[in-house]
UniProtKB/TrEMBL annotation, chain A:
Statement: the UniProt record of this protein carries the keyword Aminoacyl-tRNA synthetase: no
Biological classification of the source: Bacteria, Pseudomonadati, Pseudomonadota, Alphaproteobacteria, Rhodobacterales
Keywords tagged on the record: ATP-binding, Nucleotide-binding, Transport
Regions annotated as coiled coil: none
Protein name: sn-glycerol-3-phosphate ABC transporter ATP-binding protein UgpC
UniProtKB/TrEMBL annotation, chain B:
Membrane topology classification: Multi-pass membrane protein
Described function: Part of the ABC transporter complex UgpBAEC involved in sn-glycerol-3-phosphate (G3P) import. Probably responsible for the translocation of the substrate across the membrane.
GO biological process, one term: transmembrane transport
Span of domain ABC transmembrane type-1: 71-295
Any one Pfam family match given in the protein's UniProt record, by short name: BPD_transp_1
GO CC terms, sorted: plasma membrane
SUPFAM superfamilies named in the record: MetI-like
Transmembrane residue ranges: 7-31, 75-99, 106-130, 168-189, 210-233, 274-295
Protein name according to UniProt: sn-glycerol-3-phosphate transport system permease protein UgpE
Keyword set includes Cell inner membrane: yes
Compartments, as annotated in UniProt: Cell inner membrane; Cell membrane
Record flagged with keyword Transferase: no
Length: 372, 308
């Protein structure tokens, strides 16, 4: 079994801490995606699991072994690198089989295995080529095959798709998921692309500045983002945020003095201080545009982008930009005021200071507008 | 910025031609002299056209200088030095580039400093060491008082000696250490992506295996470049062999060529055998030229390291 347990793991470079005490339990066979912008510590964490980076403090356990002091090769992990890291002077077959050669496997047996693995990733006819004679996608497959052939307990992926063009990226994404399902090993996949994260992961780990912001299934993370950071990172286009103060119950004052009544939409938890500073988060795809005064608030239309299947409307609430994605296509004049209707799941509330989520109870959608 | 105008083209070609003449003219003169008889070569004004004595002179030079033995010696010296340099500098650069340890920069600078201390500068101490390679250890024993202690305890006087004069080891070893080679490797090793190193680690290859199976195969062009430069360098060694070998059986071509060249001490005011000396020069030039021509393709690629 290859569960991975990460306990209070920290990493410092020359006194500067870059990973601040991460705790994470990964179950055997799970596909975990670590998502975050560059510099958030996700790659460092992955490399600490692999053994390429020393663990400053804390503990990493793979299966039932603490691996802190083990060499990379003793950890039962295989890694796929961003730049593939193929040996340029070796043929495809030798690249794939190198780990087995190092392990001392007989040549005949090795070649047999190489051929079998190469077949599964569609490289059968390229075994005698050098990496320099392959396309990006084929090199990626060689890197995959090199990881698969070792039959590791854990697959580690360090942004393996970021050097591929868009179409190939989608194709390889599917292939990685297929291989994961077939082999059943634990996979940890690092990326900054939220689409990759959402589509591949059993569970997402969203990282920011060396800490984990949220762990959950893609659906959980999308439905109930734990902080403004996660809410802004997951979902495309990004969530809209409007600063607001709490009036009473689920009634807010926006910075403009406008009153937004969420009584029909949600119930607020008790114990929130009145006049508390909040962030009102609105999912663009859960907003609709209606006539002035029909929705929860009024905004001004700026311009629209055509998406084919729908339209991306750029609106403005005083100084704050608000985007709406909708399938209904309307022709609006620049500067024209429109009403904003909230669909279920549109509204997320966060503490103004900490950015943490305020847990609310959803109600069926009634967009009642109570004018001030 | 490359401009192409007829005037510039002519000017650049004129400069190129001037350079070519400056390089080729001395070689041509050597060749002309080697084809002439003694009378012709000493004639004033000098004749600038080749004569017909080339093979006679070459044969004379070969016999006079005993190049048969010297060629073998020089070849042993050159191959030994080249092999030593290629291996030693690869290992040094490997240690400097791929291992993060406290001595990394000190070692790097130590190697760097040797650039400022070529053999010509440290020739006296080097000779002293070659005369007895164990003398540094003897000195350490003497200074630390261990010699005295052992003598008191056992009444045996420790006296170590390992003479390298008149031996191939003595010819080769002092020339092996090289900063140039270490730098050449270092520059190449620094371009090897970290991910490749890490991939090898994940594949379970230890450091020496990585050196042998990944780094060395990747640096063949570098090795070729280094080997070429160093072959010519060691083939042309003069001062060190002159100093350390007194036995003619260990003489090398450059020293022997020096003896062919007539000056007042070797001819004693006798016959100025310039035609023989020039023929000898041509003979001695042949092996480096062959090596350079043969290695040229690799050599250029290794120095510009475009091919990865």
């Amino acid at each position: 079994m290859s569960d991975i347990t990460i306990r209070d793991v920290r990493k410092s470079y020359a006194g500067t801490e870059v990973v601040h005490g991460v705790n994470l339990d990964i179950r055997h066979g799970e596909f975990i995606v670590m998502l975050g912008p560059s510099g958030c510590g996700k790659s460092t964490l992955l490399r600490m699991i692999a053994g390429l980076e020393e663990i400053t403090s804390g503990e990493v356990q793979i299966g039932d072994r603490v691996v802190n002091r083990l060499e990379p090769r003793e950890r039962n992990c295989a890694m796929v690198f961003q730049n593939y890291a193929l040996y340029p002077h070796m043929t495809v077959a030798n690249n794939i089989g190198y780990a087995l050669k190092v392990a001392g496997m007989k040549k005949a047996e090795r070649l047999e295995k190489v051929a079998a693995v190469a077949q599964t990733v569609g490289l059968g006819e390229f075994l005698d080529r050098k990496p320099g004679q392959l396309s990006g996608g084929q090199r990626q497959r060689v890197a995959m095959a090199r990881a698969i052939i070792r039959e590791p307990g854990v697959f580690l992926f360090d942004e393996p798709l970021s050097n591929l063009d868009a179409k190939l990226r989608v194709q390889m994404r599917h292939e990685i998921r297929r291989i994961h399902n077939r082999i059943g090993a634990t996979s940890v996949f690092v990326t900054h692309d939220q689409v990759e994260g959402m589509t591949l992961a059993d569970r997402l780990v969203i990282m920011n500045r060396g800490t984990i912001e949220q762990v959950g299934t893609p659906q959980e993370v999308y439905d109930r983002p734990a902080s403004t950071y996660v809410a802004g990172f997951i979902g495309s286009p990004a969530m809209n945020f409007l600063p607001a103060t709490l009036a009473e119950g689920p009634v807010l004052w926006l910075a403009t003095g406008e009153r937004v009544d969420l009584r029909g939409v949600m119930e607020m938890p008790r114990g929130l201080a009145p006049r508390a500073m909040l962030q009102l988060g609105l999912r663009p795809e859960r907003l609709r545009i209606g006539p002035v005064g029909s929705g929860a608030m009024d905004v001004r239309f700026e311009f629209a982008e055509e998406l084919g299947s729908g339209r991306l409307y750029h609106l403005r609430h005083e100084d704050v930009p608000v985007t709406v994605v909708s399938e209904t296509k309307q022709t609006l004049r620049e500067g024209e005021p429109v009403g904003l209707t909230l669909l279920p799941g549109a509204v997320h509330l966060f503490y103004g200071e900490t950015g943490r989520r305020i847990e609310t109870t959803l109600r069926s959608s009634v967009n009642e507008r109570v004018s001030a | 910025m490359i401009e192409r105008t007829p005037v510039l083209n002519i000017a650049t070609h004129a400069i190129l031609a001037a350079g070519l003449i400056a390089l080729a003219l001395p070689i041509y003169l050597v060749f002309v002299a080697s084809t002439q008889t003694l009378a012709e070569v000493t004639a004033i004004p000098s004749r600038l056209l080749p004569s017909d004595q080339f093979f006679v002179n070459v044969k004379a030079a070969w016999i006079t200088a005993d190049f048969g033995t010297k060629f073998v010696n020089s070849m042993i010296l050159a191959v030994g030095v080249v092999t030593g340099k290629v291996v030693l500098s690869a290992i040094t650069a490997f240690g400097i580039v791929f291992f993060d340890h406290r001595m990394r920069m000190p070692v790097f600078w130590l190697v760097f400093i040797t650039l400022m201390l070529p053999l010509e500068v440290r020739i006296v101490p080097t000779y002293a060491v070659a005369a007895n390679a164990l003398s540094p250890f003897q000195a350490m024993l003497d200074w630390s008082g261990l010699t005295w202690l052992i003598e008191k305890a056992t009444s045996i006087r420790v006296s170590m000696e390992w003479n390298l004069l008149n031996s191939y080891t003595g010819l080769i070893l002092p020339l092996v250490a090289t900063a140039t080679g270490t730098f050449l490797y270092r520059q190449f090793f620094l371009t090897v992506p970290d991910e490749l190193v890490e991939a090898a680690k994940m594949d379970g290859a230890g450091p020496l295996r990585f050196l042998r199976e990944v780094l060395i195969p990747l640096s063949v062009t570098n090795i070729a470049a280094l080997a070429t430069i160093m072959f010519v360098y060691s083939w042309n060694q003069y001062l060190w062999p002159l100093l350390i070998t007194t036995d003619p059986n260990y003489g090398v071509v450059a020293v022997e060529l020096g003896r062919l060249v007539p000056d007042s001490s070797s001819t004693g005011g006798g016959i100025p055998n310039w035609h023989i000396a020039m023929a000898g020069t041509l003979i001695v030039m042949v092996p480096p030229i062959i090596v350079v021509i043969f290695m040229q393709r690799w050599f250029v690629r290794g120095l510009i390291s475009a091919d990865k």
